[in-house]
């Protein structure tokens, strides 16, 4: 890890969802000053989709879910981040965020961002009663449960949290947030 990094940075948490996973990695390549938080489940998805995190720009710092206390979350209290993106976010991650459970790196950084009043963008996966999504073997149809859809709606009510449902919405929300941060730095 580099001793000197530009701050504030964007924090991005990857969960164990394959929904637009490769597209999210592509979007990360466009983000300057990025720190990536990779859950254990996300590390498995990286392998399933045969992706490589080392293809990200060299200035991306990668934090892996290897400590019980999620030690890297302390950076949120040091003013290192201006925004958190959680995406793609599994229904499990969304439910844990809604109910305040912080037992993975992704849910822990979401909780810390909230406690530090750092805006979050959550790219929720299960957002419609019937969806097509990419699995390692190709497109599959899924039917999110009512509880999954309800939790996405609950998350929308969280302060400083923007929930997006599509890759286009994620791209738009991210660009809007980066423009806002850039304008306030000027």
Q: Topology, please?
A:
Elements: E1 9-14, H1 21-28, E2 34-38, H2 40-48, E3 61-64, E4 81-89, H3 91-98, H4 105-115, E5 120-124, E6 131-135, E7 138-142, H5 146-156, E8 161-164, H6 167-185
Parallel strand pairs: 1-2, 1-4, 2-3, 4-5, 5-8
Antiparallel strand pairs: 6-7
Helix pairs in contact: 3-4, 3-5
Structure, described:
The chain is of the alpha/beta class and 186 residues long. It has 6 helices and 8 strands, in the order E-H-E-H-E-E-H-H-E-E-E-H-E-H. It has a 6-stranded parallel sheet with strand order 3-2-1-4-5-8, sandwiched between helices. Strands 6-7 form a two-stranded antiparallel sheet. Strand 2 (34-38), helix 2 (40-48) and strand 3 (61-64) form a beta-alpha-beta unit. It is globular. It starts with 8 loop residues before the first strand and ends with a helix.
Q: In CATH terms, what is the architecture? A: 3-Layer(aba) Sandwich
Would you tell me which CATH topology applies? Answer: Rossmann fold
Range of strand content: 15-25%
Strand order of the largest sheet: 3-2-1-4-5-8
**Helix-and-strand structural type:** alpha/beta
Which residues sit in consecutive blocks of at least 5 with pLDDT less than 50? Answer: none
Any idea what the shape is?
Answer: globular
Number of domains: 1
The percent range for helix content is: 25-40%
Kindly provide the radius of gyration, computed on alpha-carbon positions and rounded to a whole number of angstroms: 15 Å
């Amino acid at each position: 890890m580099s001793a000197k990094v530009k701050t504030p940075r964007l924090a991005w948490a990857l969960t164990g969802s394959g929904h637009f996973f490769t597209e999210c990695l592509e979007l990360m390549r466009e983000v300057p000053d990025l720190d990536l938080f990779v859950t254990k489940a996300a590390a498995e998805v990286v392998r399933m989709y045969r992706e490589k995190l080392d293809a990200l720009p060299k200035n991306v710092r990668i934090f892996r879910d290897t400590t019980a206390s999620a030690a890297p979350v302390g950076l949120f209290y040091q003013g290192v981040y201006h925004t958190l993106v959680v995406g793609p976010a599994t229904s499990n991650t969304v439910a844990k965020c809604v109910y305040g459970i912080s037992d993975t790196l992704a849910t822990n950084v979401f909780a810390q961002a909230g406690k530090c009043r750092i805006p979050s963008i959550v790219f929720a996966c299960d957002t419609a009663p019937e969806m097509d999504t990419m699995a390692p073997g190709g497109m599959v149809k899924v039917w999110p449960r009512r509880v999954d859809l309800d939790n996405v709606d609950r998350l929308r009510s969280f302060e400083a949290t923007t929930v997006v449902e599509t890759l286009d919405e994620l791209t738009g929300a991210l660009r809007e947030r980066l423009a806002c941060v850039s304008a306030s730095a000027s």
